[in-house]
Structures are given as structure tokens and as C-alpha cells.
Amino acid sequence: MFLGIDVGNTRLKWALYEQAEPGARLITQGAEFLENIDKLADGAWGDLPTPTRMLGCSVAGDAVKLRVAEQMEELWEVVPQWVHASPAEAGLSNGYDHPSRLGADRWVAMIGAWHRMLAVSPPRPLVLAMIGTAVTVEAIDAHGRFLGGLILPGHGIMLRALESGTAGLHVPTGEVREFPTNTSDALTSGGTYAIAGAIERMIQHVRQRCGAEPACYMTGGAGWKMAPFMSVQMELVDSLIFDGLLEIAERRARQA
């Protein structure tokens, strides 16, 4: 049994697989808000089959990782292991100025997306958008080199920034419209199209840089909200971080 963990800005997502290899059968999965991590051993994890390995990625600090480890120690004799971005792993090379400073979730999701693409096509450029509390948009060339990426506020952060910095904008969330005619729709549409525009601009950059049409993937908790409003077709895949963790876990086991 293999336990994959993805600690984001808002929630901890977990998935238990039959084994640590790509395509492994998913046994069960779940999510908890970060403030509820200390309830996992007595709650969602209490009746799980015992995992023999755990690998996770986290954008939270060491204190959150410690809380996760404490919950695991109550139940299992499994040593928590965490992925950190490195100069190269699982067929990708990291073009960040300081590779270790790249967010682990970004790195793992790119590995998942890269191998998902290779399973269905020859190597080609790739653009990955991860839509969550924050939004990231990553570019990879056809040789598996991470070229760079964008970070921008997620939709909720945009709305809260406008509400706190602008008088009179405390309004309910609206609908996405091409031509909004009320403030609620204008706010929702503006945030949605701002994110869409950043993604589409990165796709243009990759086309120009690589001279080829990139494979385009979208993931993250709010990906399903964004996907319908993209002018470029993107494959929505919820599991890319877990796919990446499985890929890394198998390769590390082979190298051990």
C-alpha cells in the first residue's frame, strides 16, 4: 500500500494506492482542511489499510508536516517522506534559477503531467495550469526541461483584494459573462478571464519558443471552474500531483 499526500494552502489531500507505481489501483482518497489535520488518525485514516510507504509534497511549513507525521505515528510504523524540487527527477530537468526554491507541488504536478503526455504521444512541449488558492502556469519543452512558470492570485484572493481595497464591492459571487451588466458578474468574469489570459499567454510563449503546439493540462481544486472558459482546449486531470508522486516513488525504489 502506498499513501500519497498533497498539502496545499487550504487543504490536505490524500490517496491510498495498492502499490507505489504509475497506474496503480486507487483504494480510497479524501481531503481535510488544514485546521482539521489533527483529527485524521481518529477520523478518515483510522480504518485505512496500513500503508508501507508514504510520499508527499507540501507548500506549507515544517509545522504542518510535523502534524501530519504525528497523525501517522499514531496509526502506522511508516516514515514520512517529502518531495523537494531538485535539479532533475523522473525525466524532467529543472530550469529554475535556484531549483530547490521551486514549489514542491509545482514540480510534482509537472512530473505527473509529463509522464501522462508521454503515455499517449511522442515528446512535445507542455503547458500545465494548476488552479487553486494560487494559480501557477508552467512551461516544459519537448526535451523535458522546465522553462519557467507564472504565479498569480487565485480567484478568491482576487475578489478579497478588491473587496478590501475598493469601497462598495462587497457583493455576492456572480456568473461569468462575456459582457457583464452587474457588479457581481463583472467581478467573477474579470477574475476568470484574468486567469484564462495568463494561461493563454503562456501557451503563446511556448508555441513561439518551441515551434510546436504544446500539450495542455489543467489541474487543481478549482480547475473544473476554469476549464469551460478557456479558448484553448485543455485536458482537466484532478490527479496530476498523485500521478507525479507515484512516478517518483517507483523510480526512487528502483534506484535504492
From TrEMBL:
Cofactor (UniProt): NH4(+); K(+)
InterPro entries xrefs: ATPase_NBD, Type_III_PanK
Gene Ontology, cellular component aspect: cytoplasm
Residues where substrate binds: 96, 103-106, 183
Active site: 105 (proton acceptor)
Cofactor note: A monovalent cation. Ammonium or potassium.
GO MF, any single term: pantothenate kinase activity
TM regions (residue ranges): none
EC primary class: transferase
Keywords: ATP-binding, Coenzyme A biosynthesis, Cytoplasm, Kinase, Nucleotide-binding, Potassium, Transferase
Pathway note: Cofactor biosynthesis; coenzyme A biosynthesis; CoA from (R)-pantothenate: step 1/5
Keyword Nucleotide-binding appears in the UniProt entry: yes
Pfam family, one: Pan_kinase
One BP annotation, GO: coenzyme A biosynthetic process
Catalytic activity: (R)-pantothenate + ATP = (R)-4'-phosphopantothenate + ADP + H(+)
Record-listed ATP binding positions: 6-13, 133
General function of this protein: Catalyzes the phosphorylation of pantothenate (Pan), the first step in CoA biosynthesis.
Subunit structure: Homodimer.
Assigned protein family: Belongs to the type III pantothenate kinase family.
Name assigned to this protein: Type III pantothenate kinase
The species this protein was found in: Ramlibacter aurantiacus
